[in-house]
Amino acid sequence: MKKIGITTTVPIEVLLAADYEVIDLNNIFITSTDYNKYIDIAERDGFPKSSCAWIKGIYGACLENGIKEVVAVIEGDCSNTRALIEVMELKGIKVYPFAYPHSHKLADIKTSINDFMKLFDVREEEVEKVRARLSSLRSLAAEIDRLTYKDNKATGFENHLYQVSCSDFNSNLVEFEAELKEKVEEISKREEIKKKLSLGFIGVPPMTCDIYEYVTNFDAYFVYNEVQREFAFPRVVESDNIYQQYYDYTYVYDLDFRLAEIKKQIELRDLDGIIHYTQAFCYREIEDIVIKEQLDIPVLNIVGDKQNSLDSRTKLRLEAFLDMLGDLKERRL
To answer: From which residue to which does any coiled coil extend (predicted)?
Structure first.
């Protein structure tokens, strides 16, 4: 089976219908025991130190793992992707572009997905068959999400891991489905996790995944992972077709559309505070201004760079923020 890398979530149904093994380059990069080697590869090839670690990691992972074809999102995700494409093509990698239209009009999204299907020579009926197959896996990921905020049994990291993995289903649908089923059964048998504070995580999935365990030291617990949840398409059952499904995908469109869903989840999950994670040198850091203005809940912005663990300064900021949330909650009780 042919392999194809992706720079972020794309209509994977099209790629699977075209008989590709899909590999999320982000996942290869961040799960590596020596993730820094991917960044080093990019910097040796001329990527500036003041550029996003994710972009450099994606590039390094692509070259190091011999990925010859890549789908890159040129609208709706990272603003650096266009430059990344040019360097990849220079290295002989075939790049297929995909765009989430800024207009966020259903007709424009339909055109974009139809063009994507033509690019890979697949028909809508074939894509819909794959979409139906993936619905069972997405429903299992949704169950892990429910076990997190409803039953308080899944950890914040498990919530993050199994939803973020839905970008490529770990490149093996059968094995990933079996793993999800086993994990749902195991989590269901656990005792309830009892923590004072319920937290939400918004923004790009973190490089510093130890944040999930760290906050538990302060009687806190992540019960919402915004973008990871979007990767799992939690509203897929409400979509009549692939066009509607990707129209409802919040992260890649305007901030107001994204914030509307975040506000719903804040109320549904009774969140006490939000951690807004951004990556250094990313334009999304600026969005924090709007997010803090629009959300009626305390928000702490933390910025990641090359490290895959929290630094001492960020730990101190988190501790102070969680102490403040605890005091606020006690006053309300």
So the answer is: 166-193
Residues 304, 207 share a domain: yes
Residue 34 has pLDDT above 90, yes or no: no
* Structure tokens that stand for 240 in this block: 């009549």
Query: How many angstroms separate the CA atoms of 151 and 309, rounded?
Result: 28
* Shared domain check, 222 and 76: no
Residue 129, domain CATH: 3.40.50.11900
Q: Do the beta carbons of residue 55 and residue 77 sit within 8 Å? A: no
Does the pTM surpass 0.85? The reply is yes
Decide: 26 and 167 in contact? Cβ < 8 Å: yes
With a CB cutoff of 8 Å and minimum separation 6, the contacts of 187 are 144, 147, 153, 154, 158
Taking only the tens place, the pLDDT of each residue in 231-286 is: 999 999 999 999 999 999 999 999 999 999 999 999 999 999 999 999 877 777 78
Residue 60: which domain range? 2-119
Of the pLDDT bands very low, low, confident and very high (cuts 50, 70, 90), residue 333 is: low
Distances (CA, A) of 59 to 8, 28, 95: 13, 11, 12
Specify the CATH number for the domain of residue 101. Answer: 3.40.50.11890
CA 46 to each of CA 68, 167, 194, 216: distance values in angstroms, whole numbers, following the listed order: 20, 29, 48, 40
Task: Specify the residue for token string 């994670």.
Answer: 277
Of 71, 89, 119, the last residue of a domain is 119
